[in-house]
Design brief:
The structure holds 2 protein chains of 2 kinds.
Chain A lengths: L2 E6 L3 H10 L5 E6 L2 H11 L3 E4 L8 H10 L8 E5 L4 H10 L3 E4 L4 H19 L1
Parallel strand pairs in A: 1-2, 1-3, 3-4, 4-5
Helix pairs in contact in A: 2-3
Chain B lengths: L1 H62 L5 H21 L3 H31 L1 H9 L2 H80 L12 H79 L3 E5 L5 E4 L1 H11 L7 H11 L3 H13 L5 E6 L5 E10 L5 E10 L1 H37 L4 H33 L7 E4 H15 L4 E5 L6 E4 L1 H18 L5 E9 L2 E7 L23 H6 L5 H11 L3 E7 L3 E9 L2 H4 L5 E5 L3 H13 L3 E5 L2 H10 L5 E4 L9 H10 L1 H4 L3 E5 L4 H7 L3 E4 L4 H11 L6 E5 L3 H11 L5 E5 L2 H10 L4 E4 L8 H10 L1 H4 L3 E5 L5 H8 L4 E4 L5 H14 L1
Parallel strand pairs in B: 7-9, 13-14, 13-15, 15-16, 16-17, 18-19, 18-20, 20-21, 21-22
Antiparallel strand pairs in B: 1-2, 1-5, 3-4, 4-5, 6-8, 9-10, 10-12, 11-12
Helix pairs in contact in B: 1-2, 1-3, 1-5, 2-3, 3-4, 3-5, 5-6, 8-9, 10-11, 11-15, 12-13, 13-15, 18-19, 24-25
Chain lengths: 128, 892
């Protein structure tokens, strides 16, 4: 079964990388290039997983995350923060905002795919 | 006394009564005597009237003349009155009866004789005469006379008796007066003696005693005897004396008391004066210490007020006791609190203005609960400021708490700096991590996955692009860092900016087929001064941005134009434009307009920051105009170059890749009046030499960055006929003097060398054209100074020590310039100038006057028309003199 992954990053090349990483037929990938678009697509598409950059134009990744968590429709959607901000404080901030996982750039595509698989499996488990 | 006085008074009174009576009797006797004389007189007058009457009657009888009757009529009229008067005067009865008899006789005479006779005489004169003859008349008259005589006789007797009695009275009164007077004198003498004995002596005694008393003999007393009055006086005196003695004793006692009191008072006064002195000294000390305290207080206040941090002292009762100027400023600027009154009110106001009122209040509660509380906390104000508050108890030397100090530091700027630093770190981190993530990520995919050839190639292409992006980022970043730190020098040279713009526009036009690049550049050269590579970098940045931000099919316009002292280049796009609120950040490093489009477009965020640094380093300006949705126009201006180079100075080209060494050479040679151009590589150097006017001299480094080194440059220069004649000075840190000479270098300078060595060598190499300067000054050290200053330019420097010698030198060979002193022996500078004016060939020699003389306005005016310039020795500037002389000689 194909899972929908919403990929939010303002860097085109990063989106290419994530797309290439998850390009194994299990995932249908939808992309957003800024915060507002991310939020809009998340609400509309109800993806199985969201990969969220922190520094984006418009709403930042953290703001998007908080709004997602405040919305019952998306409150339980697994979110991976994928960000260039690698400080401990950034990590804590993301955790308290409700991020399920935190990956700092540069990241290992293998690690990303294992995290995605894990979260999608859990999410499916929760939903069923 | 009284009896004696009474007796004396009685005696005197009786004496006076006796005398009075005697005198009265004398007076009565005298009056009686006077009345007696009057009686006699009145009787005599009456008698005479009778006689007159008889005489008249008789005459009429004889003559019958009526006139003789006149006495008769008068007598008849007067007799009754005379008789009555006489009667009034008489008191004696006998005499009175005699008068009555006389009166009867007279009446009888008149009526019985006289009147009938007259009547008869008128009627019968003879009868009348007969009557007369009868003697009747005579008889009657004699009777009357007899009566009168008797009367007068008796009156005389009465008067004599009265006289005798009067005399007796007079004698008696005389005796009485004499006896009374004698008695009186005796009595007065007796009385006086008595008075003396009974009154005067005791009184004198009292007076003496009074005098002695007055003299201070207070015990003096008088005998209390003698008459009552005197005794009374003595008693009164004695009482008085006793009283005086007693009072005096009392007074003396009181006086003694007072004196002792006085002594005590004087003592007290001395003590008081001492105390006052002490007090005054204390007062002085207090005043001095007050002054010191005031100074100290003012100093403390000044120190407090000089402190940047706000300081408040809180009294134990919780009121604000003291604030410094910084706190007052903060209070009014953003804390919005009162600086007087209870601290809690102020704290409550501050709490409401912070982003954490609860935390603030909790902190304040700790203060109030624990006087010894000490702590520090930071707060963010709603108005944007950040404050740090430190509080501690204030204790005296014994450790007792006097109150509390609260120190507020405005840490807004620190926080802002930290925030900016964090932001920069985050941005740098982000900018580095993003391409790294792509490189590592795709590399990992390449390593871990079975991929077809096309995908592998694609991934490798991405990795390469991202690696290049990372490199560009790092280069830009390092460039920018260097520029910001000031360790960046530009190799400035004049070049045609138009040509450079045309070239860059072509490059970018070829890169993007989706965009049109329109170029609008005038045909004339646009000469500027700058480093062409750096200007090209700026232009590339602007063009790249313009293309990136223009929609597909959009047009990028490039415009270059000359504007007086600078050349302006602008690059316009038809892109998104820059939101107004972000415009002020546009040249800030890592700043990128916040939108998804800009992220899509990419970029390091350093390009414009670098552009600004580069343009400003060129002495130019950079800016932009932009409106959202209508595109942006970025422009820069560089100083125009041609004019700066057209001053006739000898051009020197320095080919040197080390910016510091180049700058050093430029400094020394520029100071000596040369126009210095720098080429940072061998290629550039060769291009410069070939493209424009050949330089007068080339300073050539051997180790050069780039393909061609110094030897290569030298060889190429000497190969070409048009550049072979340019003298080349090899300046290098390495050996090779022989090689240099073989290859045709004119001279060789081993690094490091001094400015003087450089100057001397350059001066030797530059063709002076046989130009000479005559230095005229009577002081040898001054001539040496000037010669040293002007040395190294290939000038022949001649010297003269006075005006005459100078004119001889001029006559021998005309110099190209003269440096002339004014005050000299034999012939002064003014005379030299005058003589030079006389001949046409010497009139045009430029003269620079160098003098220590203070010139009058008139002298200055005179010199202005005859000398090129007047320099003062007190403001001697080698640079100025060199520039003036070398330029002058070069031009002439």
């Amino acid at each position: 079964m194909v899972s929908t992954v919403l990929l939010c990053d303002d860097e085109e090349v990063l989106r290419q990388l994530v797309r290439a990483t998850l390009d194994n037929g299990d995932y249908s990938i939808v992309e957003a290039a800024d915060g507002d678009e991310s939020l809009e697509l998340a609400r509309r598409l109800q993806p199985d997983l969201i990969v969220l950059d922190m520094m984006m134009p418009g709403r930042s990744g953290l703001e998007v995350l908080r709004e997602l968590r405040a919305d019952p429709e998306t409150a339980a959607t697994p979110v991976i923060m994928l960000t260039a901000r690698a400080r401990e404080s950034d990590r804590n901030e993301a955790a308290s905002a409700g991020a399920d996982r935190y990956l700092a750039k540069p990241f290992s595509p293998l690690e990303l795919i294992s995290v995605v698989e894990e979260l999608v499996a859990n999410g499916r488990g929760h939903r069923s | 006394m009284v009896v004696a006085s009474t007796l004396l008074l009685l005696f005197v009174t009786s004496l006076f009564v006796a005398l009075f009576l005697t005198v009265r009797e004398l007076h009565a006797a005298s009056q009686a005597s006077e009345r007696g004389d009057e009686v006699t007189s009145a009787a005599s007058r009456l008698e005479r009237l009778v006689i007159d009457l008889e005489t008249g009657q008789r005459g009429f009888v004889i003559t019958r003349d009526e006139r003789f009757l006149e006495p008769l009529r008068e007598a008849r009229a007067a007799i009754p009155d005379a008789t009555a008067r006489l009667r009034g005067l008489i008191s004696d009865d006998g005499q009175l009866s005699r008068v009555t008899g006389i009166d009867r006789q007279i009446r009888s005479y008149l009526t019985a004789y006289a009147q009938p006779l007259v009547d008869t005489a008128r009627t019968d004169p003879d009868a009348a005469r007969a009557i007369v003859a009868s003697g009747e008349g005579k008889r009657r008259t004699d009777a009357l006379r007899a009566a009168f005589a008797a009367f007068l006789q008796r009156q005389a007797e009465i008067d004599a008796a009265r006289e005798a009695r009067s005399e007796s009275f007079a004698r008696r009164s005389l005796v009485l007066s004499a006896g009374g007077l004698a008695g009186l004198i005796l009595l007065i003498a007796l009385f006086t003696g008595f008075l003396v004995r009974a009154v005067v002596v005791p009184v004198r005694r009292v007076a003496g005693a009074a005098a002695r008393l007055a003299a201070g003999e207070l015990s003096v007393r008088v005998p209390e005897d003698g008459p009552a009055e005197v005794r009374g006086l003595g008693q009164a005196f004695n009482r008085m004396a006793a009283s005086v003695q007693e009072r005096t004793a009392q007074l003396e006692a009181a006086n003694t008391e007072l004196e002792s009191q006085n002594v005590e008072l004087e003592q007290q006064q001395v003590e008081l004066e001492e105390q006052q002195l002490e007090l005054e000294q204390q007062h002085d000390r207090l005043a001095a210490s007050n002054e010191e305290l005031a100074r100290q207080a003012a100093l403390n206040r000044a120190v407090l007020d000089s402190t940047r941090d706000g300081i408040a002292f809180i009294e134990p009762d919780g009121s604000i006791g003291l604030t410094n100027a910084a706190l007052d400023r903060m209070a009014s600027d953003f804390l919005k609190i009162p600086t007087r009154g209870p601290m809690e009110d102020a704290a409550a106001s501050v709490a409401d203005n912070t982003t954490d009122p609860e935390g603030f209040r909790a902190e304040i509660d700790k203060w109030t609960a624990d006087p010894g509380y000490m702590g520090e906390a930071e707060y963010q104000m709603l108005s944007g400021e950040a404050i740090r508050r430190y509080t501690a108890p204030v204790r005296d030397s014994n450790g007792s708490i006097l109150g509390r100090i609260s120190v507020l530091s405005d840490i807004t700027a620190e926080r802002e700096a930290e925030r900016l630093k964090d932001e920069l770190m985050a941005t740098v981190s982000h900018e580095l991590r993003t391409p790294l993530a792509s490189i590592l990520g795709f590399a990992e995919l390449l390593v871990t996955r079975e991929l077809d050839e096309e995908t592998r190639t694609r991934y490798l292409g991405t990795i390469h692009r991202e690696a290049a992006r990372l490199t560009a980022l790092i280069n830009d970043f390092l460039d920018l860092q260097r520029m910001e730190e000031g360790g960046f020098t530009l190799a400035l040279e004049p070049f045609d900016l138009g040509e450079l713009v045309r070239h860059e526009a072509e490059v970018f036009s070829g890169q993007s087929t989706d965009h049109t690049v329109q170029v609008d550049i005038p045909d004339d050269k646009l000469d500027v001064v700058g480093e062409p590579e750096r200007v090209a970098q700026v232009l590339a940045n602007l063009l790249s941005n313009a293309i990136k931000y223009s929609p597909t099919g959009g047009t990028v316009r490039v415009l270059a134009e000359s504007r007086r002292s600078f050349v302006r280049v602008s690059v316009s796009d038809e892109g998104l434009g820059i939101p107004r609120d972000q415009q002020r950040h546009i040249f800030t490093k890592f700043f990128r307009v916040d939108s998804s489009d800009t992220r899509r477009i990419g970029g390091t965020g350093l390009g414009l920051a670098l552009c600004r640094e580069l343009i400003e380093a060129h002495g130019g300006r950079i800016g932009f105009e932009s409106a959202r949705g209508k595109g942006s126009t970025f422009w820069f201006e560089l100083p125009a170059g041609a004019s700066a180079q057209a001053d006739g100075r000898p051009r020197l080209l320095v080919i040197e890749d080390d910016a510091e060494a180049a700058a050093l050479l430029e400094g020394h040679l520029g100071e000596d009046g040369y126009a210095v151009e720098i080429a940072a590589s061998g290629e550039e150097g060769l291009r410069r030499v070939r493209s424009g006017t050949p330089p007068a001299l080339i300073c050539l480094d051997i180790r050069l960055a780039g393909e061609v080194d110094g030897w290569g440059v030298l060889a190429q220069l000497k190969e070409a006929a048009d550049t072979a004649g340019i003298p080349v000075l090899v300046c290098t840190a390495y050996g090779g003097r022989g090689d240099a000479s073989v290859l045709g270098a004119s001279d060789f300078l081993a690094k490091p060398f001094t400015a003087e060595q450089l100057r001397a060598t350059v001066g030797r190499l530059l063709p002076a054209g046989g130009r000479s300067v005559l230095v005229v000054d009577d002081e040898e050290p001054v001539r040496r100074l000037i010669v040293e200053t002007l040395g190294g330019f290939g000038l022949e420097l001649r010297e003269a020590a006075d005006g005459e010698a100078a004119l001889e030198q001029v006559a021998a060979a005309l110099p190209d310039a003269i440096v002339l002193d004014l005050v000299m022996p034999k012939l002064d500078g003014f005379a030299v100038l005058e003589r030079l004016q006389e001949a046409p060939e010497t009139r045009t020699i430029p003269v620079v006057v160098l003098t220590a003389k203070s010139l009058s306005p008139g002298e200055r005016m005179w010199l202005r028309t005859r000398a090129l310039a007047v320099l003062e020795k007190s403001e001697y500037s080698a640079h100025e003199l060199r520039k003036l002389v070398v330029n002058t000689v070069g031009r002439s």
